[in-house]
Write a structure and sequence with these properties.
Layout lengths: L1 H43 L10 H24 L3 H15 L3 H4 L21
């Protein structure tokens, strides 16, 4: 009986570690996407690395940080299982792979990997 209890405990522990690792992967993917969005916003506004302390750069940085907080909250609430988290990571990674030009297109379709995530639904 002890070996069965130990096996169950190990299974629960490994599941918890897998979930924690998946959360870390999702958080990392979101952070990468947010850095890409900041880079694109700075590029679009003509702000280079040496002038990121200007009021305009600070405003852009704050806006992107707020948007990313909302996106992170959306994914956190929508992706509760490891399967959903993998889909969320695929979605965020597909956005990160896009060029700044692609990301700035107002009517560009959301990546197919993002289907079902509120942050990537287009207003009708």
């Amino acid at each position: 009986m002890k070996s069965l209890s130990l096996a169950v405990l190990l299974l629960i522990a490994s599941s918890s570690l897998t979930s924690a690792g998946m959360n870390a992967n999702l958080n990392s993917a979101i952070a990468n996407m947010c850095e890409k969005l900041k880079t694109c916003a700075f590029q679009q506004m003509g702000i280079n690395a040496s002038s990121k302390q200007t009021p305009t750069a600070t405003a852009i940085n704050n806006s992107v940080n707020q948007a990313c907080a909302l996106i992170k909250a959306d994914f956190t609430s929508a992706a509760t299982t490891n399967t959903q988290k993998r889909k969320a990571i695929a979605c965020v990674s597909s956005v990160t792979k896009k060029t700044c030009s692609e990301l700035s297109q107002p009517n560009a379709p959301s990546p197919s990997a993002c289907k079902g995530f509120q942050s990537f639904k287009r207003a009708k």
